[in-house]
Amino acid sequence: MKKVIAFAAAALMSTAVFADGEAVYNKACVTCHAAGVANAPKTKDAAAWAPRMEAAGGIDGLLAIAKSGKGAMPPMGLCATCTDDELKAAIEYMLK
To answer: Is residue 14 part of a domain?
Structure first.
């Protein structure tokens, strides 16, 4: 029983690491969003993000755009292996 509990705890901890928006951002988004490359909204720039958030219809709309790509950003940005949850966490990190 102890092995099952330890395995479940390890699985939960590893999932939390991958869903960490800052970690995903640093791995895949920082290159363009830190400097505003190719019209990418800068991280934590509320004025730049607000019209995009409104036009997209909220966080789920921004996620859909990130998944399909926009302008110079390819589909999934620079994180081709990210899950929806990871992308969403990175977007939420960039917004705050």
So the answer is: no
| Residue 16 within a domain | no
- CATH value at residue 59: 1.10.760.10
Q: Is residue 6 part of a domain?
A: no
| pTM, rounded to two decimals | 0.78
| Domain with 73 in it | 21-95
Q: What is the pLDDT of residues 49-79, one digit of tens each?
A: 999 999 999 999 999 999 999 999 999 999 9
Which phi-psi region, left, alpha or beta, contains residue 20 (left: φ > 0; alpha: ψ -120 to 50)? beta
Amino acid in position 72: A
